[in-house]
Amino acid sequence: MIQTLIKNEPVIAEKKASYPKKKNNKIILEIKNLKKNYKDVCAVKNISLTVTQGEFISIIGPSGSGKTTLIRCVNRLIDATEGEIIFDHKNLLHLNNKELRQARAKIGMIFQHYNLVYRLSVIENVLHGRLGYKSSLRGLFGVYSDAEKEKAVEIIDMLGLNEMIYKRCDQLSGGQKQRVGIARALIQDPKIILCDEPISSLDPSSAKIIMDYLVRVQHDLGITIIVNLHQVDVAMKYADRILGIREGEIVFDGSPSELSKEKINEIYGTETGELILD
Amino acid sequence: MMNAKQEYIRRTKKNKIITNPLTPAKLGIFSIFSFLILLTIIGFFTINSKGMVINKAIFEALEGFKNMFFRPKSTRFDLAEGMILVLQTLALAFITTLVGSGFALILGLLAAKNITNEKLSNAIKMIISFIRAIPTVLWVLIFAIGAGLGAVAAVVGMSFHTIGYLVKAYSESFEEIDGGVIEALRASGANWIQIIFQAILPSSATYLLSWTFFRFEINFAVAVAMGAAAGAGGIGFHLFNAAGFYHDIREIGVIVYLVLAVALIMELIAIRLKSIYHIHE
Ligand SMILES: Nc1ncnc2c1ncn2[C@@H]1O[C@H](COP(=O)(O)OP(=O)(O)O)[C@@H](O)[C@H]1O
Ligand SMILES: [Mg+2]
Q1: Domain of B176: which CATH number?
Q2: Which of A17-31, A70-84, A118-132, B6-20 has the least mean pLDDT?
Q3: Would the ipTM clear 0.85, i.e. be above it?
Q4: How far is Cα A155 from Cα A187, in angstroms, rounded to an integer?
Q5: B193 at interface of A, judged by CB pairs closer than 8 A
Q6: Assigned domain for B101 exists
Q7: Is residue B260, in this structure, part of any structural domain at all?
Q8: What is the reported pTM?
Q9: Between B267 and A107, whose confidence is greater?
Q10: What range defines the domain where residue B171 resides?
Q11: Is the peptide bond before A20 cis (omega within 30 degrees of 0)?
Q12: How many whole angstroms separate alpha carbon B169 and alpha carbon B174?
């Protein structure tokens, strides 16, 4: 499966051509009436959302609109104040510790600042993605099975990090670090990957490489991608579906083609033409 | 247009803008320091020199130094015995550092805000700073009440202060760690113990190592002193005797060279360790 990924170069063009894709309509994630208050700030107000398997969703909105909060509520890095999150037929808010670990193992996450252990090598960081499946003791000593190591090598190869495999992560460029981040999420064998501004710390060409990899992951592995983005143009180029969030509420939910200039200005609360788009 | 927010801006009498206004805290620190400097100056002029002739005193001191450093000779132990004595002192430093760092590792993890919680962290840090505030020598004497002066009191007392010192150093190293790494592993389903061993310890290993080594050097110095003050044996006890009973300055010279040699070797080891673990910071 991963072998095909490497050869499949013109994925994006292909994907765009075939859009709208036939969806299998299998619901993977359902958010119902989600609410999150921080003391006196209401960051997310009553958001409901249904995500089907294999979608590529971009969440856009001004900073402070609640994108990060929403995405972190999904894997319970942040505990929601109210509402339901149903992932893979389980209500995540009613799980005990062990069940939550199991659910989290099936949810990958990619961060703006990569969040790698910089003193460890690329392969060690990638293998961290398996900790959620391990007993405390095995995980603690970093004991991984041969199959896990083989898979790590395969994924590292797919992300073009072959030469870096034993390099310490502090020696990598930003784009390479983010690819390690993707590899760490992929080895989890996730059903969904959450990305919180994955390209905001990268130069444009590295950003493009990262977005292309995310599309491949969606297209070839069928993994659902939800990505918070700062850049509206990037969201329009890559996503199947765009969510516009403003002050903790969804104000737009549709395909990129439905996202008009007026809608963008509504999301960002600017007058027509004020927002710079190139 | 200039008068909008003027009420927040402080100026001197000459209408110049003040950039760092005097706070009560700054005033307090300033007055304490002034007081201490004043005391030092007064103390210097009121020393009771008991009819000491300054020229003669300097000459005798230099004579002493000459005998100590250029004519070292021990009459009460030979070189092999001297080395064994130094090793005893080193062993004292080693065991107290080892015991101290073991306890400090566990307590340091519990005292790091980003690993446990604020309440537990503050509670541990408060107790630890109390332990640290009392000097090592005093701890040894306190434990000597129960155990009697000797090696046992020295080991327990020194370990105790080492814990106080290293918990602070370790927990601060842990708190330096980028919270994002912990979050990333938590998000993938890792549990606390896995995160500690796979992310926190690898990220802070070099800091832990250099703090521990630093404390080992301190403990070596303390161990010399404890040999003298608490009868813990080792080279310190002989130093105490040579200085206090025999007034044998040439033997003190030998002891000083032995201690210096150990310090030098430790420094070399520290440099070696640092290059192995690539401490670039
Ligand atoms: N830990 C927190 N404590 C208090 N307020 C927070 C916290 N995190 C976020 N907020 C507030 O919640 C709102 C939404 O923030 P966030 O989800 O980070 O938005 P975005 O990711 O869209 O920039 C903001 O008003 C922010 O100030
Ligand atoms: Mg954000």
Answers
A1: 1.10.3720.10
A2: A17-31
A3: yes
A4: 7
A5: yes
A6: yes
A7: yes
A8: 0.82
A9: A107
A10: 78-277
A11: yes
A12: 9
